[in-house]
Structures are given as structure tokens and as C-alpha cells.
Write a structure and sequence with these properties.
alpha/beta; FAD/NAD(P)-binding domain; 11 helices
């Protein structure tokens, strides 16, 4: 290692890269990390952090209306986009500075610029060469916009938070969680919102009951949700954007947001100068230690596919640093990872879908519950909460829990701990609930669902 400038050179200062760099430096490694865009990566700058702030903002409009049933008779105030946008910018700048301090305190050198790999131990940043015993690629993902006429007129999740003016009419294209969340945000902020998805039902990969209940509630909230519909072309007009659809119809919009997937951000990285290989989806192939086909080069986070979640990248960064630089070994366990979709109402899920559970375990028992949240018995809103539990008959273990409803993410986090510990349905049944809460429904569901 003494022949190299560093023991580890990390390319990309997102969640996974920063965690790996910080921990490796803490174990005594000489570490450098290069970033050409912004500290904290997608999550902090154009992902989960600003998105959650905008979700909060979008909920106030309905909350003002809900409050009338509780005696608060004020009118819904006007929404100011620039206030939200600029306050978000201030908070993100604060978080960028936090990441800078974290790296500095750990002793990792931060290099401002895009790193390009010259050979398996050498990178170039801004014309300067650096060598390292190990290279770690953690450059994350990048939004993908299909090649259609007028594609340059669309925006992605990279730009949507910072639009100069609020789009009174917006078309969201895509059926994944990012598209669903942004449709809810702009609908809640008062925009006329249309969401298009080319398939028969969005949120592919989630439990089918969750997908169906979410579609029903999102439509009821005011989003014009159109399945089996796609965009043929975009055109600039005097009044905004014309959106030509595959069914022959046409929409007028002030903005078109494409949320049709993300691809590993590998352009210009210099992988052609290495033995690193990619799979059919363009993701970097790695083994269970995050090592690529080039022995000195590693990769983790969104560039290797899998569950593209910030906490997963953090866990991978920690596991990598521990394995390579002398810490206690900790392999990432990808089962029973909870996740939330901050659509409106929220989705929370952990474990197997019904389809996957039948394939994995065979005989299973389902428990389902649907009810109107207590708050809305007075607010007057007709929104419904849906909960589902999946139990493996052979062991009585709870192997899947899914929810659509307020605070679903907060509720599922605690349930995920119990499921990772192997909790059975009997354990859930013997747990005393907190009353009155929605969460107590998960410990009071006694009757199996029979399909009636």
C-alpha cells in the first residue's frame, strides 16, 4: 500500500460513498473521495430529502380543509412556490456542509471534480493523477428520459424542485415510486395533475393489493391517473407544452416530468480502461464483497442495482469498509428491508408480496383490513387505510406486512424490527396495541381473509 497515494479512492460522495470513505478513514486507511456535483448525492440534493419536504408542503392544503370539521373555520391560504423552493435550497446547503464536515473530521480528503479511471489503480481529477490500492465506484444513478420527439422539453427529478415558476398544469410520466410521489406532491400543492403509465397498473414489484388500493385512493385525491397510456411527442406551444398521447388524445401542460427510471451514472468514468463488467441492465457486476471483475475496483449503491434505497447504500458502504479495512465483518442482509412510498396516502411495506410468498413458502394465510382513519370521521375526507399481513403456515412467521394509509412508513419501521427478529403471528396477537391508533390494527387482526 505504501507505493500508492491512498489506500482507498472513492468516486462519488453520495450516501454510500461517504459512508465507506468515513468508516475506512476511521479504521486508519488513507482515503480520498471525489465528487463533481454535490455532496450527499441524489438523496440529499434531488431525492428523498427535498422530496419529503415537498410532501410535507403538499399536505397542508388538505389539512386546512380537514381542520374545518374540527372547528377551525379559516380559509385555505395561498401557496407560494418560491418560498418553498428557496427554503429547501437553504436546508440542502446546510446538509451539504454537514457532509463536508463529516469527511473532514474523519480525515478523508475531499477532491472537487469528476474522477476518471486511467487504470485499475489510477484516477485523474481535473488533470491531476491519484493512485490507490483500491478504487470504489459509488456514482449513483441518473434519470432516464426516452428518446421521443421533444424529449428536451421535459424535466426530470433533478430539475423539478427548482422550477422558476409553479406549474399550474403538470403531466407526470412513469409508474414507479418517484412518479407516484411527485404526482401527489403537485396535486397537493394545487396543480392540475395527470399521471401516465404505459402498463395496466403502476408500482410494479409491490404487492398487488397495495397497488390497487393506492390507485383507488390516488385517483380519489384528484390525480388524473391514466394507465396503458404513454407519450408520443412533446411540442412547445404559445400556451405551454402540448403532450401527444398514444391513445390519440392531447394534453396541455406547463411542465412534463419524466420519472421513467434511473440508470447507473457511469458516463466518462473510464471503465473501458479496466476489466470491470456490466450486466444486461448496464449495472456493474460485483460479488458479495462488492468486488468487480477487476480485483482492485469495487462498486456499491445504485450502480450495482438491487434495492436502490439510501439506507441500503449506507449499509453497503459500512460493510465494504469493515471487510476491507479491518473492522468487524458485516455482510448486508437484503431480506426484510422496509421501504415507504411518500405518495398520498403513504405506502409502507416490508417482506414478501403475496405472489412472492406463495412461491417461496407455499401455504400462507392472509389477513386484511380496510377502514376509515379516525381523523376523517370528523374531517369528512373519504380516504381509506388498507393493511395486509402475510403468514407462513409452516412456521407461523409473519413474512410480509403492507400498508396504504397515513404514517405508513413510520408504522412499518417498527414492524420491520419484529419481522427481522422472526416474529410469529402469535407474537403479534399477544402484543397489546396502543389505542386509538391505526398501528394497533396489526396486532388485532384475528380472522384470516377468505376472499369473501
Amino acid at each position: 500500500m505504501a507505493d500508492f497515494d491512498y489506500d482507498l479512492f472513492v468516486i462519488g460522495a453520495g450516501s454510500g460513498g461517504v459512508r465507506a470513505a468515513r468508516m475506512a478513514a476511521g479504521f486508519g486507511a488513507r482515503v480520498a473521495i471525489a465528487e463533481d456535483r454535490y455532496l450527499g448525492g441524489t438523496c440529499v440534493n434531488v431525492g428523498c430529502v427535498p422530496k419529503k419536504l415537498y410532501v410535507y408542503a403538499s399536505q397542508y392544503g388538505k389539512d386546512f380543509v380537514d381542520a374545518r370539521g374540527f372547528g377551525w373555520q379559516s380559509e385555505v391560504p395561498a401557496f407560494d412556490w418560491t418560498t418553498l423552493r428557496d427554503n429547501k435550497r437553504t436546508e440542502i446547503a446546510r446538509l451539504n456542509a454537514v457532509y463536508d464536515r463529516v469527511l473532514d473530521v474523519a480525515g478523508a480528503q475531499l477532491i472537487d471534480g469528476r474522477a476518471s479511471i486511467v487504470d485499475p489503480h489510477t484516477v485523474v481529477v481535473n488533470g491531476s493523477r491519484y493512485t490507490a490500492d483500491k478504487l470504489l465506484i459509488a456514482t449513483g444513478g441518473w434519470p432516464h428520459v426516452p428518446a421521443i420527439p421533444g424529449a428536451e422539453l421535459a424535466v426530470t427529478s433533478n430539475e423539478i424542485f427548482d422550477l422558476h415558476a409553479f406549474p399550474e398544469r403538470i403531466v407526470v410520466v412513469g409508474g414507479g415510486y418517484i412518479a407516484v410521489e411527485f404526482a401527489g406532491i403537485f396535486n397537493g400543492l394545487g396543480a392540475q395533475t395527470t399521471q401516465l403509465y404505459r402498463g395496466p397498473l403502476f408500482l410494479r414489484g409491490f404487492d398487488d393489493d397495495i397497488r390497487e388500493n393506492a390507485a383507488r385512493e390516488i385517483t380519489a385525491s384528484g390525480v388524473d391517473l391514466r394507465f396503458e397510456t404513454n407519450v408520443m411527442a412533446l411540442e412547445q406551444t404559445a400556451g405551454g407544452l402540448a403532450v401527444e398521447l398514444t391513445d390519440g388524445s392531447r394534453l396541455e401542460a406547463d411542465a412534463v416530468l419524466y420519472a421513467t427510471g434511473r440508470k447507473p451514472h457511469l458516463q466518462g468514468l473510464g471503465l473501458e480502461n479496466t476489466g470491470v463488467t456490466l450486466n444486461a441492465r448496464g449495472e456493474i457486476d460485483v460479488d458479495d464483497e462488492f468486488r468487480t471483475a477487476e480485483p482492485s475496483i469495487f462498486a456499491l449503491g445504485d450502480v450495482i442495482g438491487g434495492m436502490e434505497l439510501t439506507p441500503v447504500a449506507l449499509a453497503e458502504g459500512m460493510s465494504f469498509a469493515r471487510r476491507q479495512f479491518g473492522g468487524p465483518d458485516q455482510q448486508v442482509d437484503y431480506e426484510f428491508i422496509p421501504t415507504a412510498v411518500f405518495c398520498q396516502p403513504n405506502i409502507g411495506t416490508v417482506g414478501f408480496t403475496e405472489t412472492d410468498a406463495r412461491e417461496r413458502f407455499g401455504a400462507i394465510t392472509l389477513y386484511k383490513s380496510s377502514f376509515r382513519p379516525m381523523k376523517h370521521t370528523i374531517s369528512g375526507r373519504q380516504e381509506q387505510t388498507f393493511m395486509k399481513m402475510i403468514v407462513d403456515d409452516a412456521t407461523d412467521r409473519v413474512v410480509g406486512v403492507h400498508m396504504v394509509g397515513p404514517d405508513a412508513g413510520e408504522i412499518i419501521q417498527g414492524i420491520a424490527i419484529a419481522m427481522r427478529a422472526g416474529a410469529t403471528k402469535a407474537v403479534f396477537d399477544s402484543t397489546i396495541g396502543i389505542h386509538p391508533t391505526a398501528a394497533e390494527e396489526f396486532v388485532t387482526m384475528r380472522e384470516p381473509w377468505t376472499g369473501d
